[in-house]
Design a protein that fits this description.
The chain is built from five helices and five strands, in the order H-E-H-E-H-E-H-E-E-H. The protein has 171 residues and is of the alpha/beta class.
Length: 171
């Protein structure tokens, strides 16, 4: 019976270890079809929400934001919000409104007294954007600004969702 030299024994051992590693790697290798995509591709359009200093803590702003996000998931339109900080005056809110207009938001939704007042004053500077104010009937709005009246939060969410979806479809 021939003697196994140590080179042959090492070669066989390495082959067996390599085979075991290959089989275990194959068995435990993650399936790439299971992992969800890590990024979303969006449309080049953005719908924007302008709120007062309460931001999304305001019930109406929160309902509007939920509607915007739902529309974004369906249509891939980008959505963002900006809160007016500092004094809650039309003059201060105008800087924030102008910021959204300069970003070329296709739809600007204003919630709160100062943001709605800023929209009233500045909407004509951004004719390519659609303007929507969430406000009661007693506030007079110029032509060109769509009003969403104080309604139930569910109706508000649904109305905003439809407006954002329409804005995405029109681009």
């Amino acid at each position: 019976m021939p003697k196994w030299n140590w080179h042959a024994k090492v070669a066989i051992a390495l082959t067996l270890v390599g085979g075991v590693i290959a089989v275990l790697s194959w068995l435990f290798w993650p399936n790439p079809t299971i992992d969800p995509p890590r990024e979303r591709s969006y449309l080049s359009s953005t719908a924007c929400l302008l709120t007062d200093n309460r931001g999304l803590a305001d019930e109406q702003a929160e309902a509007a934001w939920v509607g915007m996000r739902e529309a974004s998931l369906e249509t891939r339109i980008k959505v963002q919000y900006l809160s007016v900080s500092g004094p809650q005056t039309p003059a201060n809110a105008a800087a924030y409104f102008n910021n959204l207009g300069l970003q070329k938001c296709v739809l600007i939704i204003a919630v709160g007294n100062a943001p709605v007042a800023a929209m009233k004053e500045g909407s004509d500077r951004f004719p390519d954007s659609r303007h929507v104010a969430i406000s009661p009937d007693d506030i007079e709005l110029p032509e060109g600004i769509t009003r969403i009246r104080d309604t139930s939060l569910e109706t508000l969410r649904s109305s905003v969702r439809q407006l954002v979806s329409d804005a995405a479809q029109s681009r």
